[in-house]
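Researcher: I need the complex structure. Ligand is adenosine-5'-diphosphate. Inputs:
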Amino acid sequence: MDDTRQKWNNVLNDLVNQITAISYDMWIKKLNPVEEKDGKLYLQANSSIAKQTCMSSFSYLLSQSIGQHFGFEDFVILDPTEYANYLKTSEAEAAMQVVIEEATRNTSIQSKYTFDNFVVGNSNKFVYYAASTVADNPGTKYNPLFIYGGVGLGKTHLLHAIGNYIIKNNPKLKIQYTTCEQFANDFLDTLRDKTKNIATFREKYRNLDVLLIDDIQFIAGKTSVQEEFFHTFNDLYQNNKQVIIAGDRPPKEIATLEERITSRLSMGLIQDIQSPDFETRFVILQKKAQVEKYNIDNEALVYIAEKIDSNIRELEGALTNTMFLTSLVGKVRAGVNEAKNAIEEAIEESKENITATNIIDTVCSYYSIDKTSVLGNKRNKEIADARHICIYLIADMLNLPLATIGREIFHRDHTTIMHARDKISDSLEDNERLRKDINNLKQIIMKG
Ligand code: ADP
Ligand code: MG
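Model: Output:
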């Protein structure tokens, strides 16, 4: 016996004791559970009189008992005509679902990220507008669309949302999501592996109608991949195919990106995504709590939204941790205290995992600079700047004595280290670019 039927039997058991035998036999017993969908129980009645009677005389009892056994109180009774339509719609929906699933296969697009569950606020309304315009008119407007912004602000979410929208509205289009890293690996594998054919690789990417490429900053320093990407891009672009790219900074700031690529990427629309304001953070938490059916005080949501202000992934993480901690201490409903503890715990934990090596590696890969030069004595500006940033971050994030940092890591005395640190903290005041970089770097480092 299926689950719905079983729960419905419990409802029948309730009602048989609550109403007269004759009403029960004539009306309630003849209802047939169809399915549970979107928090509602659908019931089939064998006549429209039956439906009317149940609704006018027994709807209160029904919703009470359904609430107890199903966990939600909403129900819909379908008379024979409505039932027939319901089946038709369900069939059409199921058929549509098959088409969508088919069209999604091998695209690497994740169905959980949609425009519907993307909260729009001041920080992202322009980029949202650009993304939805492109989704509506692939290949004709804003091509390429380049989205950039810090870690955890919704770039990947938007790329998948564009993908899902196009699949749903235009399932014939060939579409592919890939990270820059996957693209690079795919390409390099093809070159290395004699059984693989470069023509197949090219066919895969150059026959697309829509290419979504994520985390483009990782193309820095990979010359042959840049070359291949350049040709892929050109092919698609010349054929009016849509290219959408996301990265953590604008094209001209991606180190070692060839000039011809930078200028190609700048031909369309470049749109940044910023850190969400309090309002948006709060709505994101509220929605998430609703979807996950979390039992949590509004004040706790406010507290989290106030504390975690620069990264939506962390915002969601703090909410999950709060719920986890609440269940650990055996409480049913999460309050401000649980939120506070969860956030403090997370901060402690992420601090424990940070090491100087980890910081230096992150800075080097962020600026595409060789680690040995940062640790060495080279004085050209790029390298010296990266070295100073490493020193600043190590001093700031690890609370190590300056003398130790000097002696153990950079082989310099502590005044040199102090100057380097102060130089960065002074420049932070009026150098917005640096502020952004430091912010991004911290986020990446904290993430491990
Ligand atoms: P990025 O690619 O910029 O690092 P993601 O797209 O992976 O960030 O977003 C991180 C998390 O935050 C994801 O779970 C995503 O669904 C969520 N998120 C980001 N922006 C929003 C938004 N505006 N509304 C709802 N959820 C969001
Ligand atoms: Mg991402």
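Model: Summary of the prediction. DSSP finds 20 helices and eight strands in the chain.
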